[in-house]
């Protein structure tokens, strides 16, 4: 066995070996391939590692794989599946396929949303679990109107900080504790077991919040709730991403965000429903968040374990059984599973170690993983910098301060939740066509404008010679427009992007760090906004976050790379491009093209992409 490596920047070695006689996986383009055909002009090619072997070798290797892992009865199936994986979209040239297998592959190619019932059930159930977070946010949102008075903390200064920490603690413990117990929980319990345990936690703690007798008791219940939220938030998107086929992975994993905002809407609906129950209204608002978690705890028993988790833990035969349940035909399941296994072997070669701390260190030490970490950390931090959560956490308070009554503020918040749900749905179809990066770059400047406009609209708040409608209307309008822009960009992208960019070996650690960033800064935002709103005034607070939107745009431009329609394994090549090369391409090629074509309206040819799938004989798997 020979080992080859190519150095791309200081400390960066891209391993390009698999077995003897293989070709490099990370190649630079040539104008011609020596046969008279023009090669790709892309800066880097994503190449299928199975192309390093002949068809006969590929078939034999796959058969040996099946026999080695006690799946001898499937050896011929894996042989055919390996050839399909090798040929990619040219699978019809594989003459070894049976008629039903060929028909299944053609149907899959022509029907983007085709999948097994178990795939749709599992993705949908995980999405329901996401509603817990949104529901709890809005439960506390409504409860903020009454629980401070219940516990005698409705003053200024110290009381504002207490209200802030009670709201913030679930995010602080989610980011600083919950996210970092994900790895041991996943290791010993699996994805399903970890989700079940956290679902039980998130069923019990909202009920505990509802029975709190003091703000300290409420704080304690939410402290534990945050640990469950952090562990769940880091696992459910990974579980979804590992089950979903690449062609619709973005849309399927985005069910997470869709159900987060559905939870926000349902939480606001619950707030409105119980608003007339008197002094216990806030208790019902907080306690109702147990509903989606209870559904998740019961339903997860009927889902298969993640095939990639089983593969990682050496349970190959069980992994294939799980993948088969998640695909519409055995040939599709065998193709996806075998291809994942081949790339998993490649990842093992660059992994610094298998221990917890070694894998966590790899997220900052190994260049390919570090670049993915840059991107994931950026989109997670940007979600808090954009200011959406000052609305999610405190919209009822904001609308009340703008001039609404308590009841009107709850209804305005319900409208905010409805806007999020409605405008997240179109992004299901955009995220895998327009891409994650493009959606963020388009929407962040728009969010900055609308958030600033909402803040400026609050300046007339104290002017009594201005009609009530003129004072309140613009605030609500611009908050809703800001929410529309968020729902079609950063909202769906953050958890989707973070769940997919890390290699299998470091996926738990990478996602844990990303969730830590997201939830810790959500906690800081929730803690500081009540005091910021008082000291800086609402227009100043809104203007502050409008400015952060522009900073977040610059960070996304620099560090977030496009991942649409690539398999989780093919993303290794995307993040093998050095950061300096990536930034140079974006600044010197893509930015001038955008200015000339979109602003100056010049008709110029589109520049070559920095990453492109191999073409012709080098087609790679797109499934």
Distance between the termini: 30 Å
Q: Percentage of helical residues?
A: 55-70%
Question: In terms of per-residue confidence, which ranges show pLDDT below 50 for 5 or more consecutive residues?
Answer: 1-43, 615-623
Please work out how many helical segments DSSP would assign.
27
Strand order of the largest sheet: 3-4-5
Beta fraction: under 5%
Taking all residues together, what is the mean pLDDT? 82
Shape: globular
Derived from helix and strand composition plus strand pairing, the structural class reads mainly alpha
Describe this structure in words.
The protein is mainly α and 623 residues long. Helix content is 68%, strand content 3%. It has 27 helices and five strands. The strands form two sheets. A three-stranded mixed β-sheet has the order 3-4-5. Strand 1 (5-9) and strand 2 form a beta hairpin.
Summarize the structure.
With 623 residues, this protein is an all-alpha fold.
Secondary structure layout:
Blueprint (H helix, E strand, L loop, with lengths): L4 E5 L2 E4 L10 E2 L16 E3 L8 H14 L6 H13 L11 H12 L6 H27 L3 H4 L7 H19 L5 H29 L4 H29 L5 H5 L1 H19 L7 H7 L2 H10 L7 H6 L3 H10 L4 H21 L5 H10 L1 H19 L2 H14 L4 H19 L2 H4 L5 H22 L10 H20 L2 H11 L6 H29 L1 H23 L11 H4 L4 H21 L11 E3 L10
Parallel strand pairs: 4-5
Antiparallel strand pairs: 1-2, 3-4
Helix pairs in contact: 1-2, 2-15, 4-8, 4-10, 4-11, 4-12, 4-18, 6-8, 6-24, 7-8, 7-11, 7-12, 8-23, 8-24, 10-19, 10-23, 14-15, 16-17, 17-23, 17-24, 17-25, 18-19, 19-22, 21-22, 21-25, 23-24, 24-25
């Amino acid at each position: 066995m020979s080992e080859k490596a190519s150095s791309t920047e200081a400390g960066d070695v891209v391993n390009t070996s698999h077995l003897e006689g293989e070709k490099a996986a990370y190649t630079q383009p040539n104008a011609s391939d020596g046969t008279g055909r023009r090669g790709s002009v892309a800066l880097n090619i994503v190449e299928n590692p199975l192309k390093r072997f002949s068809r006969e070798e590929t078939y034999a290797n796959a058969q040996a794989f099946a026999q080695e892992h006690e799946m001898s009865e499937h050896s011929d199936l894996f042989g055919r599946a390996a050839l399909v994986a090798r040929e990619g979209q040219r699978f019809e040239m594989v003459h070894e396929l049976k008629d039903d297998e060929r028909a299944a592959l053609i149907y899959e190619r022509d029907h983007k949303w085709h999948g097994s019932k178990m795939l749709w059930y599992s993705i949908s159930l995980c999405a329901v679990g996401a509603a817990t977070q949104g529901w709890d946010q809005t439960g506390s949102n409504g409860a903020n109107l009454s629980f401070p008075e219940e516990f005698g903390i409705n003053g200024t200064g110290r009381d504002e900080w207490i209200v802030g920490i009670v709201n913030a603690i679930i995010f602080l413990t989610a980011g600083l504790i919950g996210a970092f117990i994900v790895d041991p929980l996943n290791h010993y319990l699996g994805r399903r077991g970890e989700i079940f345990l956290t679902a039980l936690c998130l069923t019990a703690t909202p009920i505990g919040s509802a029975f709190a007798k003091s703000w300290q008791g409420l704080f304690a219940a939410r402290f534990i709730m945050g640990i469950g939220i952090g562990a769940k938030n880091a696992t459910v998107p990974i579980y979804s991403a590992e089950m979903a086929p690449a062609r619709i992975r973005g849309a399927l994993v985005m069910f997470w965000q869709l159900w987060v905002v559905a939870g926000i809407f349902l939480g606001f609906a619950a707030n409105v429903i119980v608003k007339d129950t008197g002094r216990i209204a806030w208790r019902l608002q907080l306690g109702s968040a147990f509903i989606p978690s209870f559904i998740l705890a019961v339903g997860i028993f009927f889902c298969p374990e993640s095939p990639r988790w089983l593969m990682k833990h050496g349970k190959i035969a069980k992994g294939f059984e799980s993948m088969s349940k998640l695909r519409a035909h055995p040939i599709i399941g065998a193709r996806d599973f075998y291809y994942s296994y081949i790339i998993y072997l490649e990842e093992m070669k660059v992994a610094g170690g298998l221990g917890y701390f070694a894998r966590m260190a790899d997220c900052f030490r190994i260049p390919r993983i570090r670049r993915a970490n840059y991107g994931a950390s950026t989109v997670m931090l940007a979600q808090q910098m954009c200011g959406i959560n000052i609305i999610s956490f405190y919209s009822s308070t904001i609308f009340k301060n703008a001039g609404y009554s308590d009841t009107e503020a709850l209804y305005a918040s319900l409208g905010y939740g409805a806007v999020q749900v409605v405008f997240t749905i179109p992004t299901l179809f955009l995220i895998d066509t327009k891409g994650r990066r493009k959606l963020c770059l388009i929407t962040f400047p728009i969010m900055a404008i609308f958030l600033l406009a909402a803040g400026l609209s609050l300046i007339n708040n104290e002017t009594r010679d201005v009609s009530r409608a003129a004072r309140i209307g613009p605030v609500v309008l611009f908050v809703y427009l800001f929410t529309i822009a968020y729902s079609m960009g950063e909202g769906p992208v953050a958890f989707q992007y973070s769940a997919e960019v890390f290699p299998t070996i470091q996926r738990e650690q990478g996602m844990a760090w990303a969730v830590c960033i997201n939830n810790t800064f959500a906690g800081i935002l929730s803690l500081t906004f009540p005091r910021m709103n008082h000291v800086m005034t609402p227009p100043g607070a809104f203007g502050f976050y409008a400015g952060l939107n522009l900073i977040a745009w610059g960070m996304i431009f620099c560090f977030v790379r496009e991942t649409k329609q690539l398999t989780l394994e093919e993303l290794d090549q995307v993040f093998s491009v050095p950061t300096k090369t990536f930034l140079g391409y974006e600044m010197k090629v893509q930015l001038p093209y955008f200015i000339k074509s979109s602003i100056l309206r010049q008709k110029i040819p589109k520049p070559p992409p920095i990453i492109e799938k191999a073409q012709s004989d080098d087609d790679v798997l797109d499934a």
